[in-house]
Structures are given as C-alpha cells and as structure tokens.
C-alpha cells in the first residue's frame, strides 16, 4: 500500500550528541552516517553503541524536525515500533519466576477472554507460542491499524481471524499475539501494561525519557517527527497512535535510554550488577524457539545465515557471530535494536524515515568494525536490493494493469454503493459519495474509491504522507444479492487468507411500538403452517416460523423489514383496501412466499 523511500532534496551534515571519548574503531563513523543520510535522503537518525558496561556512542545525526532544521540529539525520542516486543515478552518473566505462569500451559487457562477461530487453537495455544509467532495466525494487521477501539475489544476480535497453518507448524509474524501477551501481563499483575513497562524496565534501567504512547511522545521536550516522500517532496507523516495494540509496538525512546536497555541484555539480564530480567527467562528469550526459514547463505552473503526466533527476538548467525535483533516500523520511523551476547556488543539505530533500509546499513557497518570483520559495502548491498524490489514492483504493476478490462461500467449508480459495511473482527468501512466519485473511511485510513472494472473498485489511500497510486491500491469487489441490491464488499486486507467480506448494513427507520402493533398476529402459509409475529422488549418486531429460531426484523421502509441475520431475506406486509395488514410475504432468494393473516 505504501512505498518506503523518503526522498529529500537538501544535503544533511548536522550532528548532535554529548561529548564522548572517541573509540578508534569508530573513526570516520560520523562521516559515514552523514553520507548514508544524504544518499538515502533521510532526515535524521539516533545511534547508540554499547560494549560490556560502557556506552561508547549515544548520538543524534541530522534533523528531528526537517522543516525547521532542528537537530536530533541523543535525547531525541523516536518511535521504536516492534522493538517494543522484547519489552512485552520480558514482562511475562516475572509471573513466570513467581510460579503464576507456565509458558507451556494453554494460555486460555490464564486468559479465558482469549479465543481463536477454532477449539484446537483456543485449547492449546501457549504463551510461548504467542511469544514466538507460531500460533498459525497470519498478521491481520489492518484489523488493528488505526482502529478506534480498546485493547479488550482487539483481544475479542482475535476469535474471528482465519488461520493459515496448524499450531506450531509455521512461523508467521503477528502483532495481535503480543497484544495478548500485554493483556496477560496486566491480568496476572493487576496493573496496566504501561505501568509494568515503567516499573520493571524504565525505572531500574534509568530510561528516564522513554514512554509508551504517542500522546506522551508529542508532549516530550525533545521528540522527532516522522517523514515519508510524496511526489519527490518530503512530507510529514501523521503520528500513528497505536495505544490499543501498544504491547506490540508503541514505545518511544532514544539513543541514551536504549543504550541501557541493550547494556542490560549483553550483561545477562543485569544492569549495574542488579538482576533486571530473571536468568531462566533470559536464556530462553535468546534461544531458538521457532525456525523462521532455512536462512541459507547466498553467493552475495555467504557468511550471514540461519534465521530463527526466540521470545520477542530474531536470532541469526552474522558472519560467524551470534546476533539477537529486532526491527521496528511504524508510520515515519524505522528502528533496529541488536546485541551480540558472546561478544558483549549492543547496537541501537532509529531513523525518522518510513520503511527505511538505513538501520540495517548502519547496524551492520558498526558490527563489522567492532567485531574486527572485513568491511562490506552494506550501502551498496542494500541499494541493490532496494532497486531489485522496485523493479519487481513495477513488473507487478504492469501485470496487474494488464488484467483490467477497459470500457466497463459499474452495475449500479454510485449512490447505491454508499453505506456502512461491517466484518467481524475488522470493523466497519463507510463509503460516501463525493463530487469526485466515492470515498471510503476505514479506521484511520481514508481512501478514494475509483472504478476499476465491472463491480471492482480501486481503493487508493489519500492520507498525508502516503504515496500509493492506483497501481498499488487495494482492489475491492462489490457483490449483488438476488434482489439486485449491493450486498457486500470484499477486500484483500490480509494477503494469506480469503478476501475479507464486509456486509452492507441496511439503513433502518424508526417505528413506534403503536405502529409495530399493527403487524402482530398469526399468519398462515400453505401447508398449513402458522407463522407468528410478535414484539420483543417493547421495540423489536420478531417472526417465528415453526421449527426455526425466532428472527429479529429491522424496519427499512414502511411495511418492509429485513431479517437481521439473514442477508437477502425480508418480510413485506400487505394491506387491504381499508389499510389493515392482510398478509405477509417472505421475500427470499428462492422466491416469495405469502402468508395470509388469520382473523
């Protein structure tokens, strides 16, 4: 949906940081980082390097505010995105140590509110499964991104998500599973996730300026904006408030604070000699819990191989050295937090550029220097990979464009496509008609809906900071029921499962109890079968057909009601010459069936 390169016109050479004794292994690093920022046209970056119990660099480069050319410093807060996951997973080490949690028992025993799409998952998924992304669920990210909902509501929605693999069969990254870990930690402790992170990590590690919400980020005295490129210009992206799914990625931090976080990890879970993370958990967190892929060496990178996942950490062989790392991406920011436990080295890099390659370029270059490895041109390697990806994207765009059938028209007038469409777990999409056509609002995302072909429409994001066009927009299909009405909208919101079907909600009208009383009574179908119409709770009209459940009816027009849970089914009441209700008609896909009112 988005392209991830930030292009800026101006050269960047400004640096800021506190005075530190220069380590000879870092000679020329400032110049290198400045060149990387210039070549990738990025605004600013925050870098921390730790060795054993010593911070050898904590510094800001470039700008935290590109428009006003305000420098980034070692104190400038950046959104670290999914680097938050290691914090959340580690919170479970405390109830684990206290005997309140067994990572290998079904998590439903501790958190019965968590349910999955089938009993096999509900009854067997463990905390360890959630911590290592092996539950069988794919990402389903657009079900939470920008959703104006509460944490417990997002947890509830998990039960509706389609799985794509059996339990523990396939590694699939999933933010909802870290949301669930945060809720589990809250339930076991009786404290909010935000409080736990502060008490267990921020305070003992001296992370005095870090926070857990974008609301707090923008109130801080030193924070960075996030950026993206659009039409060759730098545009400031909207901050993404992801508090609801915060345990998966809402921490904001800086070089100075994150230096202490990685220092604790390279010292076996201790900081200043005091245990912060229990040793039993520490060892498991940085040990392989799930294979991601074979991670086979390539011709270009024969000494970078194996790809596994621990508990909130990616694990890999990096040129013969054991590396623990996690990336983080959220609107306008890209981050990498890494450490080499057997080498006692930690590296933090965060850039205010959307979906950027810069963190890996700087991280790997620093690692090569500190590990005394032969230098590699990671800048060239990443640029080559980027250009290949861009070329592949263009080829895909061409292939997609060739499928379009020109000269077609939608089956209905545009106004017929407007309305509210809902899907379990994914919420609602509201489609409205504008002077330019159709627009759609889905959570925090706004789309322009443009006709593609037949009843397919392209949904193009139009939010500030996005640069998608019609070629990489979502393609949604409107479906029609037997009565010729627009019934649903299917959108490919999760690539690995069937399109998500949003059902169009009928526009209802208010009907007084006195008017509803006119329809109450018994109606006779051929057979004979007696149908009963009655009022429930003073304002709800119900219909009962023998042998079937009671159905709730929704008034959509005078004398016309839709079945609430049966799309395409409705009841239409007939009147006689005196205006009295004389019959009802079941209008359904296989025909219309009339029942006369009994006198």
Automatic annotation (TrEMBL):
InterPro entries documented for this protein: AmpC-like (IPR050491), Beta-lactam-related (IPR001466), Beta-lactam/transpept-like (IPR012338), Peptidase_S12_Pab87-rel_C (IPR021860)
Record domain Peptidase S12 Pab87-related C-terminal: where: 404-503
Top-rank taxon: Bacteria
SUPFAM superfamilies noted in UniProt: beta-lactamase/transpeptidase-like
Beta-lactamase-related domain ranges (all copies): 35-356
Protein name: CubicO group peptidase (Beta-lactamase class C family)
Natural source organism: Lacibacter cauensis
């Amino acid at each position: 949906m988005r392209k991830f390169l930030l292009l800026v016109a101006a050269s960047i050479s400004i640096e800021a940081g506190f005075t530190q004794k220069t380590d000879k292994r870092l000679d020329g690093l400032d110049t290198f980082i400045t060149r990387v920022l210039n070549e990738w046209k990025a605004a600013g970056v925050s870098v921390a390097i730790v060795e054993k119990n010593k911070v050898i660099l904590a510094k800001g480069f470039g700008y935290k505010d590109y428009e006003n050319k305000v420098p980034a410093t070692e104190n400038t807060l950046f959104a670290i995105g999914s680097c938050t996951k290691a914090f959340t997973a580690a919170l479970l080490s405390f109830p684990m140590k206290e005997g309140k949690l067994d990572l290998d028992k079904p998590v439903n025993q501790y958190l019965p509110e968590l349910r999955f799409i089938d009993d096999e998952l509900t009854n067997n998924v463990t905390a360890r499964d959630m911590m290592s992304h092996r539950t069988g669920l794919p990402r389903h990210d657009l079900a939470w991104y920008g959703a104006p909902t509460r944490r417990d509501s997002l947890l509830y929605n998990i039960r509706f998500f389609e799985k794509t693999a059996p339990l523990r069969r396939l590694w699939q990254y999933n933010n909802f599973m870290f949301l669930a870990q945060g809720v589990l930690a809250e339930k076991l402790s009786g404290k909010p996730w935000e409080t736990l992170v502060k008490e267990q990590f921020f305070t003992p590690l001296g992370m005095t300026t870090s926070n857990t919400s974008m609301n707090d980020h923008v109130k801080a005295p030193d924070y960075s904006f996030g950026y993206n490129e659009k039409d060759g210009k730098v545009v400031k992206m909207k901050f993404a408030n992801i508090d609801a799914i915060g345990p998966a990625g809402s921490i904001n931090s800086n070089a100075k604070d994150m230096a202490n976080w990685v220092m604790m990890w390279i010292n076996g879970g201790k900081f200043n000699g005091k245990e912060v993370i229990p040793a039993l958990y520490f060892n498991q967190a940085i040990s392989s819990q799930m294979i991601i892929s074979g991670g086979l060496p390539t011709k270009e990178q024969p000494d970078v191989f194996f790809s596994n996942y621990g508990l909130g950490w990616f694990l890999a062989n990096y040129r013969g050295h054991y590396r623990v790392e996690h990336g983080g991406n959220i609107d306008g920011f890209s981050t990498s937090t890494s450490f080499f436990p057997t080498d006692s080295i930690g590296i933090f890099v965060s850039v205010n550029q959307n979906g950027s390659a810069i963190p890996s370029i700087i991280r790997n270059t620093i690692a090569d220097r500190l590990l005394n490895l032969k230098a590699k041109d990671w800048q060239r390697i990443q640029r080559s990979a980027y250009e290949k990806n861009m070329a592949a994207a263009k080829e895909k765009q061409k292939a997609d464009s060739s499928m379009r059938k020109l000269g077609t028209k939608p089956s209905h007038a545009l106004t017929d496509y407007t309305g509210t469409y809902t899907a379990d777990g994914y919420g609602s999409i509201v489609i409205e008609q504008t002077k330019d056509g159709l627009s759609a609002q889905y959570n925090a995302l706004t789309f322009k809906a443009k006709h593609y072909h037949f009843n397919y429409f392209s949904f193009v994001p139009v939010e500030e900071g996005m640069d998608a066009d019609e070629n990489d927009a979502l393609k949604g299909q409107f479906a029609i029921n037997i009565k010729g009405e627009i019934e649903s909208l299917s959108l490919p919101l999760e690539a690995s499962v069937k399109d998500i079907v949003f059902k169009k909600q009928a526009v209802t009208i208010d009907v007084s109890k006195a008017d509803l009383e006119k329809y109450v009574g018994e109606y006779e179908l051929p057979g004979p079968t007696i149908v009963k119409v009655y009022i429930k709770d003073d304002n709800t009209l119900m219909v009962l057909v023998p042998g079937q459940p009671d159905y709730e009816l929704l008034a959509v027009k005078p004398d016309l009601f839709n079945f609430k849970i049966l799309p395409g089914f409705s009841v239409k009441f007939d009147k006689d010459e005196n205006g009295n209700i004389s019959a009802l008609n079941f209008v359904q896909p296989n025909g219309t069936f009339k029942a006369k009112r009994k006198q």
